[in-house]
Amino acid sequence: MTGILCAMREELDPILEYMNIKEKIKHANNIFYIAEFEGEDIVLAYSKIGKVNASITATIMIEKFGVDKLLFSGVAGGVDEDLKIGDLIIATKTCQHDVDLTVFGYEPGYIPESKVFFECDEDLNNIAQNVAGKLGIKLKDGVIASGDQFVHSKERKEWIKKIFNASAIEMEGGAVGCVCWNEGVPFFMLRAISDTAEEGAGVDFDEFLEESSKISAKFLIEMLKEL
Ligand SMILES: CCCCCCN(CO)Cc1c[nH]c2c(N)ncnc12
């Protein structure tokens, strides 16, 4: 069964509008929507913001609902110069930019017995690029870095870009990538840009959250039709 995960209600609501919701299951302070889309059952939820919340919901989707591929939809701060507000990006891999065990000689983002980068599923990414081609949409791909902080400084943004070669920044993908890697479940993450993670990003985020969430949601729906 396909799982669709978002961080915020604003990111999930535009997706739910396309769904025939059959059941709502409350569990671990989350609501899991069991929906039917084009004859297939899908489980959907928003985790609440941040890596811990995203890890909880992603794990429950897999362990309790038997999700065998996990698709994330939401918004992100753009790092690449060519990413404008409203543009779409998919993750080739995700990481945690706020993990720091460097005093012990480990590289930024590295935890012993784990890894810095969690690869996303190539087949799902290829499907997304095919859908983008049909729709005539530019779909960037690259590293998307997560941390438990809303990044709104050029200095922090440039550090994340330098160390992780990040194309976008958000707060959940590195955790969901880690869960899916450990569980052996294919992971796909789509984000629409809501800001540029520099000074003033909070204002842009507030202004563009709803519109960018809809952009991500609409593309995800087109992709679901190809799964
Ligand atoms: C109460 C407001 C909560 C903002 C949550 C932001 N999400 C987290 O996934 C995505 C995101 C968009 N822009 C970002 C940025 N500049 N830094 C971190 N994360 C992001």
Describe this structure in words.
By secondary structure, this protein is α/β, with parallel strands linked by helices. It has a single domain (2-224), classed as Nucleoside phosphorylase domain (Rossmann fold), CATH 3.40.50.1580. The protein has helices spanning 9-16, 51-63, 122-135, 154-164, 173-183, 201-224, and strands at 2-6, 20-27, 30-37, 40-46, 69-78, 88-96, 118-119, 139-146, 166-170, 187-195. The model has no long low-confidence stretch (mean pLDDT 98). Bound molecules: ligand 4EZ. Residues 7, 49, 74-77, 150-152, 169-172, 194-195, 197, 201, 205 line the site of ligand 4EZ.
Offer a few descriptive terms.
alpha/beta; Rossmann fold; binds ligand 4EZ; globular; single chain; 227 residues
Distance between the termini: 11 Å
Structural class by helix and strand composition: alpha/beta
Strand order of the largest sheet: 5-9-8-6-10
Count structural domains: 1
Low-pLDDT segments, ≥5 res: none
Summarize the structure.
The protein is of the alpha/beta class and 227 residues long.
Protein topology:
Blueprint lengths: L1 E5 L2 H8 L3 E8 L2 E8 L2 E7 L4 H13 L5 E10 L9 E9 L21 E2 L2 H14 L3 E8 L7 H11 L1 E5 L2 H11 L3 E9 L5 H24 L3
Parallel strand pairs: 1-4, 1-5, 5-10, 6-8, 8-9
Antiparallel strand pairs: 2-3, 3-4, 5-9, 6-7, 6-10
The chain binds ligand 4EZ.
